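Quick log. Single chain, no ligands specified.
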Amino acid sequence: MNFRKQILLASSAVVLVAVTPSAFAQVATPSADPVATPSADAAAAPQAGTPTAPVADETGEDIVVTGIRGSLRSAIAVKRQANAIVDVISAEAIGKFPDRNVAESLSHVPGVSIDRRFGEGEKVAIHGTDPALNRMLLDGHAVASADWGGNDNDPTSRTFNYSLLAPELVERLEVYKSPEPRIEEGSIGGTVIVRTRRPLDTPANSIFASGGYSYNDRADKGNVRASGLYSWHNEGGTFGVLGAVTYDKQNLTRAGVEFFGFENAGDRFFQKDANNALVLDAGGQPVLKNPNATITGGTRQDLANAVSPFGINYAYFTQQRKRISYVGTVQAKPTDDITLTLNGLHIDGNYNNSSQSMYVIPGAWSGDVLQSATIANGVVTNASFGAASANSQSAQLDLLIRKTKLTTDNLNFVGEWEGPGGSSVSATAGWSKAIGGRNPEYLLDVRTDLPYSYGFTSDSANVDYVGDLTNPANYRRSNSPQLQTIDGAPVIVNGTQLNAARAGGIDFSKTIDRDYYAGYDAVIPFEAGPFKEIRIGGKFTDHRNRLNASGFNNYSTSNYTLASLGVDTMTTPNGTFDGTGGTGNATQYINLAQQTVIDILANSVNVAVAKPTASYIVDETVAANYVQLNFDQSGFRGNIGGRLVYTKNVSNYADQVSGTDGSLPTIVPQRVQNDYLKFLPSLNVAYEAGAHLIFRGSVAKVIARPRYEQLGGSVGRNDITLDASGGNPNLKPYQSTNYELSAEYYPREGTLLSLELFRREVKDYILNGLSRQTFFNELTQSNASYLVSQPLNGGNANVNGALVSAQGEIWHGFGLQANYSYAESSTDEGLNLPYLSKHTVNVIPYYENGPFQARLSYNYRSSYFRAIGRLNSIDMVAPYSQLDFSAGFNLTKAVTLTVNAQNLLDSTYTQYSGTRDRPTAFYKNGRTFVASVSFRM
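-> predicted structure:
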């Protein structure tokens, strides 16, 4: 479906909601009472999942609206009464959230988008900003976060992996697009506040239980899932407890073709002189390393000027995600005006996975045996190569097994005192800790020397080998024996320097994220012109993010093939790459069982390796205080104030300083400390222009701090591709001036039409700088020049956008939500901001009548810049569409049967380097189907 159709679909939906007569609505009477006073927090809105206020039908009898319509009405009520620009998603009932994944639900909010690189949403981008520049607060407080080690957008981010958060535990999501001084700083795009349930606000003896089964068609596996919740409080409402547990297990299979960036073909296929210049023949044409190679589509000079893929990889990834969440909350009211709340969260996540990659690196490994090449638009789109020459290889098979366990713990205490006239004081203190990473990661690599050819288009790739990739005899040990060193120091085994070949490695990379915090908030009523109350507060946070890296180098003293090892082998399952665009006999190659890989490495020579240059500790101390004045007069309401924030960062890491003239490299510890003080003023204004129309405006100064990994300073190297990436402990925070304008029209109960305009003026934007640095290469046992990417401040960026949305109850149980977002950005480096799609469309029709309800969710986002990839590749993601469906039937008042289907279009996730004729990845994640039954009372 082209983009014009997307716009037509969204605009038609908006018009449909706008023109539907209110008489068609089953419930059309506007609520007589506001949900909350304008000065109250959104938390004062009705509990999600409880019925909205009864309204009268034509007979005068009350109708209690629940389910989809009830949750949408509750969300509209919170939005309407808020003083900031806020969007809300509410649970339909206890344990009944709109989607199986919190991030998927957030993607339906105007201006919010998610990346589905691994099938399900994990990170959230707001107004086109990188997920790392947005905050997630659990009941108003940040939660420590750790990664599973396989998603390149995960490492030491300040955001949260939403796939860990069970939707059954969520009461309401609030997306603040404009900040208030009372809300914790650190976001440029917006802040997501996740509200969980409280026992004193939940009916006594509430019970929820569910069980179900999920199936992914690409993994061809299914799993059970279950959850339960119980909430109780005494008759006086002075003491209550709530406990909940969820269990979820998924099998993911992702197959795809990856391109390791593009490089200049002249550096690989042609002869060079002592000055690194191309050797020319008598006719002035460059001379090929293999003079017999044939060129199509241009001359040899055209080939020398063209780019060719650095590597082409057929990747087969499997993962089992198992998550168990425990939540407990205790509340007590020792007096009428004091409430004490203690809540805890524990999440266990197992994200074990394996990745089997069969890849060629045409230029570096096969440039001297080039047989033919075809050039189109400056790109070598087809090429063929002979068998590998001596001391080289044609291709490599990496067999990677990653063991990952994620744990997240959070403990939070709140004491609240409510005084006369709306005054209040609350104090909070808490602790949060997350542990993740690779623990360990096993890597075994073997090589093949077979001739091969490749060809690709914008959405397909073909790699064919002359020979059988399923024959274990065609795979040999990767490297030749040589005297081994680690960081230049000789590897001594049994008293002598080891003479062997690298066979692989075992990597331990453990991330520990820990947070302590304490703070207070106070509300003081007073009358001074338009001002009605003053809010003051402060918060102190002590945060540590740590990466501990270590491992083993694995060596082999004997030559071998996979056949000579005598191990059981498998092949890539039939159909694994179907639909990905990947073809050729490269789609079926040798696979090894996980335990086989571990056993081969265990039987090699294992030498422990300390990795000080890959480890770091970042300590961050933040002290913040705020003042916020709330005002309300003559139809105008809102708040004005500021937040004063002091931040201190201390980074501890180690550098490798390369030796010269044959001397060994040395490891030098580093400690860098920086601090800064920022004042962040903000203004939010809402004007009620009659009973149905609200105009809003906001302006604010905000900051977003760099990722912890970026502050860490350590450098990670790839000894095959000779590239590296590192941190910069001297980074300053992103700074932005944010502007928001909106108009909201509420023609009747349950209906909303809105228009929102926004602008972000960002400075000190973090760019990736490239430099050449020398490091010791473990494979060649010598110094080598690496292309190193490191973050730098200095960029400026502007983001402008417009959002239009509509939702309403149309006719006889049918309703609709729809929104369209337009955003554009400009940066000093000429790129869009990461994760910013120019066009985003959501269309969500639903039907609810009696015991039956159904919802169809369609999402489209246009192409977007994702990251700077290998070899400075500008990695873009192609337009992506997703269609999901859910339906439920109430068998009784207490028992509901639900079915869900995710990614019904089986969409392909496609990446490319700058232009579509230079692809960098095609992925398929498959469809997921879920059936469940739930009980609530």
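The chain is about 5% helix and 55% strand.
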